[in-house]
Specification:
The protein is an alpha+beta fold. 43% of the residues lie in helices and 15% in strands. It has one domain: Winged helix-like DNA-binding domain superfamily/Winged helix DNA-binding domain (Arc Repressor Mutant, subunit A), CATH 1.10.10.10. This is ArsR/SmtB family transcription factor.
């Protein structure tokens, strides 16, 4: 399988960022990934079909918000915090603060041990 393309920081645009952050599911994914941990796609929980979740992850990647890494048949995703901070200083923190305050994306999370019981 071919590697996903990730825009370089200088290729990231404000319009692409704002478009990617215009959906509550995607904001929720950013909130989850804001802890700095790389997550397997299978760990992510959202009230949408797997194909729709995959679409949301692709939108975030294409805008430059996330980096996707494939290992065998598994995909992992992480927030590109450093690149975002360099390209758009303060944007990520403002989005996360507003999302938390307005409870946007709170219905998105990660699998916990009870999901495997």
């Amino acid at each position: 399988m071919r590697q996903a393309r990730h825009p370089r920081p200088e290729e990231m645009t404000l319009i692409a960022m704002m478009g990617a952050l215009s959906d509550p599911i995607r904001v929720g994914l950013v909130r989850v990934l804001a802890d700095g941990r790389e997550r397997g796609w299978g760990e992510l929980r959202a009230p949408v079909a797997k194909s729709t979740l995959s679409h949301h992850l692709r939108v975030l990647r294409d805008a430059g918000l996330t980096r996707t890494r494939q290992e065998g048949t598994r995909c992992f995703v992480e927030l590109r915090r450093d690149d975002l901070t360099v390209r758009f200083p303060g944007l990520l923190e403002a989005v996360l603060e507003a999302a938390h305050g307005d409870d946007v994306g709170a219905h998105v999370g990660v699998a916990d041990d009870t999901d495997h019981a």
